[in-house]
C-alpha cells in the first residue's frame, strides 16, 4: 500500500545540496529523504533555518568592502 | 512584475471610454483643448485643417499631405483620432470620406475663438489684496508632492499624507500593508519613483479615476475638472462657485496632491499650482518634482531649511543651500558615479534622491552637495527582499549616471572598436563587475526553491505508481517524480485530491 509523507521539497543545485547535507551532519534531522542530485525532502519546519544558514555560509565567501575600513 | 500600470496613459484611458461618455466630455471646451494638446503632432495638424471646414474630407487628401516616409505617423494620427471618435464617417456616407465629430468641433471652436465656454476654463476672481506669488505656489506644490514621495520611500519623520492619499497609494498597489499593518513600498512603487513628475501625477490621477468610478463619481465630471486644472493660469485665484458637487470633493483631494492651493481662511477660492499646469503640456521643463524643489531651494535661502528638516540624515548643512544650488546647476540632479570597488557617489542635495538611493545603497556620509555610499551584499539583499529587482536598480543607476561616466564609457568603447572593429559590445556605462555582482546577488536569493507537500512512496507495483503519478500530473499538482524508485511529490493543495483518487481506484481492486 502506498504511503504519503508530509515534507518540504527543496529544489537546488548540487553545490547547495552539498551545503545542506553538511548542515544535516552537524545538526541532524533536517533531511528526511535524499531524492536526487537536485532535490531533497526536508522537515517543513526547518526550511527557514536552512535559508538563514545558507545566507550565512554564502556571505562568508563574499568580498565585503565594508570590512576593510571603518570597523566601528 | 509588470510595468503595465505606467504604460496606461491618459490617452489610452480616454480611448477606452464608451462613445457616449466621450461625446459628453467633448461638450466642455477646456476638455477639448486639453485633448487636442495630448494628440500627436500630425493629428493636431489635421484637426486644425478641419475645424473650420463643415464639409467632408477625403482620407486620400490627408494622405497626400504626408510624405511617403511619414506613413507611420499618418497611421498613428488617424488611429488615435478614430479611437477617440474625433474622426467620424462623413455625412455623405461614401467610403473614405471623413468628418470631425460635430460636438468636438463646436466646443473646440469655442475654445479657440472664445465663444461660449460655459466656465469650463474656470472663473477668475480678481482681488488685489489676496495675491499669491507663484514662488509660494511652487513651494507648496513641491512640498505636498515630495511629502507623498517621501512617505513612499519611507523617510523617517516626514509628515504622513492624508488618508485619501494613502488609500489611493494602496489602491494603485504602489504601497501595500505589511505584516505589522504599516504601509510599505511595492515593486511597482519603486518603478513609480523612477518616473518623471508628469508621468507620476498622471499615474495617480488615472488611479483616482478608476477609484472614482467605484465611488459612483461621474468620470465626465472628474475628467473635465482635471483638464480644466491643466488650462488654468498660475498665480490667479479661481472661484469654486460653478463647480459641481463631485468637483468640489475633488478639489479637496487635488489639494492633498499639491495640484491646487487653498487658503485656510477662504476655501471658496483655489489657486492652481505648476503641477496642475504641467498636466496637459508636453514641455518637460520640470524634470522631476525634486528638481523643481531644488530650484525653489536655490532661489530662497529661507526656504531650504524647511525642506531639509524632513530628513533625519540632514546634518547641520542648512546654511549652504544656496551655494550648493549654484554649484550643481550644470550637472543633472542626482548624478551618480559608481566605481568598480562598489563605491557610489551621488551629486544631490535633494532629500528625496538620497532617500531613493538609500533603498539599495549603504550610505556613509553626506556632504553639502553629494552623498557617498557603498553597495554591499546586505544593502542589495534588503532591496531585493523588498521586491525591488536587480534590473530596476541597474536601470536606475544607469539613467542617473554622471555625464563623466557616460563619457568614460564612450571612450572605452571607442578604444575597443579601434582594436577590434568587429567588437559587438554595447556601451557599458556602469562598471560590469558591479552590474554582474548585483545580478548574482539576485540569483543567490533563489538558490533554493521550496514547496510544501507530500511524498508518495512504497508503491507495490508500477501500475499503481503510474496510475497515481499520471493522475497528479494531469491535475497539475506533480512537482517531482522518480520513476525508478517509484516515488513522487505533490503540492500541499493537490494532496487531498490525489488521496481521494487513490482510495477510489485502489479499493476497487
Automatic annotation (TrEMBL), chain A:
Record's subcellular location: Nucleus
InterPro entries linked to this entry: TFB5-like_sf, TFIIH_TTDA/Tfb5
Chain segments annotated as transmembrane: none
GO biological process: nucleotide-excision repair, preincision complex assembly; transcription initiation at RNA polymerase II promoter
SUPFAM superfamilies in alphabetical order: TFB5-like
Any one cellular-component term (Gene Ontology): transcription factor TFIIH core complex
Keywords for the protein's UniProt record, in alphabetical order: DNA damage, DNA repair, Nucleus, Transcription, Transcription regulation
One Pfam family this sequence matches: Tfb5
PANTHER family for the chain: GENERAL TRANSCRIPTION FACTOR IIH SUBUNIT 5
UniProt record similarity statement: Belongs to the TFB5 family.
Described purpose of this protein according to its UniProt entry: In NER, TFIIH acts by opening DNA around the lesion to allow the excision of the damaged oligonucleotide and its replacement by a new DNA fragment. In transcription, TFIIH has an essential role in transcription initiation. When the pre-initiation complex (PIC) has been established, TFIIH is required for promoter opening and promoter escape.
Protein's recorded name: General transcription and DNA repair factor IIH subunit TFB5
Native species: Lachancea lanzarotensis
Top-level taxonomy: Eukaryota, Fungi, Dikarya, Ascomycota, Saccharomycotina
From TrEMBL, chain B:
Region spans: Disordered: 297-323
Keywords: DNA damage, DNA repair, Nucleus, Transcription, Transcription regulation
Cellular component GO terms, alphabetical: nucleotide-excision repair factor 3 complex; transcription factor TFIIH core complex; transcription factor TFIIH holo complex
Major place of residence: nucleus
GO molecular function annotation: ATPase activator activity; double-stranded DNA binding; RNA polymerase II general transcription initiation factor activity
Single biological process term from Gene Ontology: nucleotide-excision repair
Subcellular location as annotated: Nucleus
Domain Transcription factor Tfb2 C-terminal: 436-503
Coiled-coil intervals, chain numbering: none
TM region(s), chain numbering: none
Record-linked InterPro entries: Tfb2_C (IPR040662), TFIIH_p52/Tfb2 (IPR004598)
Keyword Kinase set for record: no
Function: Component of the general transcription and DNA repair factor IIH (TFIIH) core complex, which is involved in general and transcription-coupled nucleotide excision repair (NER) of damaged DNA and, when complexed to TFIIK, in RNA transcription by RNA polymerase II. In NER, TFIIH acts by opening DNA around the lesion to allow the excision of the damaged oligonucleotide and its replacement by a new DNA fragment. In transcription, TFIIH has an essential role in transcription initiation.
Assigned protein family: Belongs to the TFB2 family.
Full protein name: RNA polymerase II transcription factor B subunit 2
Lineage, highest ranks first: Eukaryota, Fungi, Dikarya, Ascomycota, Saccharomycotina
Amino acid at each position: 500500500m502506498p504511503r504519503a509523507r508530509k515534507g518540504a521539497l527543496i529544489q537546488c543545485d548540487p553545490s547547495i545540496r552539498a551545503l545542506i547535507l553538511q548542515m544535516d551532519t552537524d545538526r541532524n534531522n533536517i533531511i528526511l529523504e535524499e531524492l536526487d542530485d537536485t532535490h531533497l525532502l526536508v522537515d517543513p519546519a526547518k526550511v527557514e533555518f536552512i535559508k538563514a544558514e545558507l545566507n550565512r555560509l554564502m556571505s562568508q565567501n563574499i568580498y565585503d568592502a565594508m570590512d576593510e575600513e571603518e570597523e566601528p | 512584475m509588470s510595468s503595465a500600470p505606467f504604460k496606461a496613459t491618459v490617452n489610452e484611458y480616454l480611448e477606452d471610454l464608451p462613445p457616449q461618455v466621450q461625446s459628453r466630455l467633448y461638450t466642455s471646451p477646456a476638455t477639448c483643448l486639453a485633448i487636442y494638446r495630448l494628440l500627436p503632432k500630425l493629428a493636431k495638424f489635421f484637426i486644425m485643417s478641419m475645424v473650420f471646414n463643415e464639409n467632408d474630407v477625403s482620407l486620400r487628401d490627408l494622405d497626400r499631405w504626408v510624405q511617403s516616409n511619414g506613413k507611420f505617423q499618418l497611421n498613428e494620427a488617424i488611429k488615435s483620432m478614430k479611437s477617440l471618435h474625433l474622426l467620424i464617417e462623413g455625412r455623405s456616407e461614401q467610403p473614405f470620406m471623413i468628418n470631425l465629430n460635430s460636438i468636438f468641433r463646436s466646443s473646440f471652436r469655442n475654445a479657440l475663438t472664445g465663444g461660449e465656454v460655459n466656465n469650463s476654463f474656470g472663473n477668475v476672481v480678481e482681488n488685489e489684496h489676496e495675491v499669491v506669488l507663484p514662488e509660494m505656489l511652487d513651494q507648496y506644490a513641491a512640498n505636498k508632492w515630495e511629502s507623498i514621495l517621501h512617505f513612499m520611500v519611507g523617510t523617517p519623520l516626514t509628515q504622513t499624507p492624508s488618508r485619501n492619499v494613502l488609500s489611493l497609494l494602496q489602491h494603485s498597489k504602489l504601497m501595500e500593508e505589511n505584516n505589522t499593518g504599516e504601509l510599505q513600498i511595492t515593486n511597482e512603487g519603486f518603478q513609480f519613483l523612477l518616473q518623471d513628475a508628469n508621468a507620476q501625477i498622471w499615474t495617480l490621477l488615472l488611479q483616482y479615476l478608476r477609484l472614482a468610478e467605484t465611488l459612483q463619481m461621474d468620470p465626465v465630471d472628474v475628467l473635465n475638472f482635471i483638464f480644466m486644472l491643466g488650462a488654468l493660469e498660475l498665480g490667479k485665484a479661481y472661484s469654486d462657485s460653478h463647480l459641481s458637487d463631485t468637483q468640489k470633493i475633488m478639489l479637496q483631494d487635488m489639494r492633498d496632491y499639491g495640484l491646487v492651493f487653498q487658503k485656510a481662511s477662504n476655501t471658496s477660492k483655489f489657486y492652481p499650482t505648476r503641477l496642475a499646469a504641467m498636466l496637459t503640456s508636453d514641455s518637460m521643463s520640470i524634470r522631476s518634482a525634486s528638481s523643481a524643489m531644488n530650484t525653489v531651494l536655490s532661489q530662497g535661502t529661507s526656504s531650504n531649511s524647511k525642506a531639509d528638516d524632513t530628513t533625519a540624515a540632514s546634518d547641520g548643512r542648512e546654511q549652504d543651500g544656496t551655494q550648493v544650488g549654484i554649484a550643481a546647476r550644470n550637472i543633472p540632479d542626482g548624478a551618480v558615479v559608481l566605481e568598480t570597488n562598489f563605491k557610489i557617489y551621488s551629486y544631490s542635495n535633494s532629500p528625496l534622491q538620497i532617500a531613493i538611493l538609500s533603498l539599495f545603497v549603504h550610505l556613509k556620509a553626506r556632504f553639502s552637495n553629494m552623498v557617498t555610499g557603498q553597495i554591499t551584499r546586505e544593502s542589495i539583499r534588503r532591496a531585493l527582499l523588498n521586491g525591488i529587482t536587480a534590473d530596476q536598480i541597474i536601470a536606475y543607476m544607469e539613467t542617473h549616471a554622471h555625464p563623466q561616466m557616460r563619457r568614460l564609457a564612450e571612450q572605452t568603447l571607442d578604444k575597443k572598436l579601434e582594436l577590434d572593429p568587429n567588437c559587438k559590445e554595447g556601451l557599458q556605462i556602469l562598471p560590469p563587475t558591479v552590474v554582474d555582482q548585483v545580478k548574482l546577488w539576485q540569483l543567490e536569493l533563489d538558490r533554493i526553491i521550496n514547496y510544501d507537500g507530500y511524498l508518495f512512496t512504497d508503491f507495490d507495483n508500477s501500475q499503481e505508481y503510474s496510475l497515481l503519478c499520471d493522475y497528479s500530473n494531469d491535475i497539475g499538482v506533480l512537482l517531482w517524480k522518480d520513476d525508478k524508485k517509484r516515488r513522487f511529490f505533490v503540492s500541499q493543495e493537490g494532496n487531498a485530491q490525489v488521496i481521494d483518487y487513490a482510495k477510489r481506484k485502489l479499493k476497487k481492486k
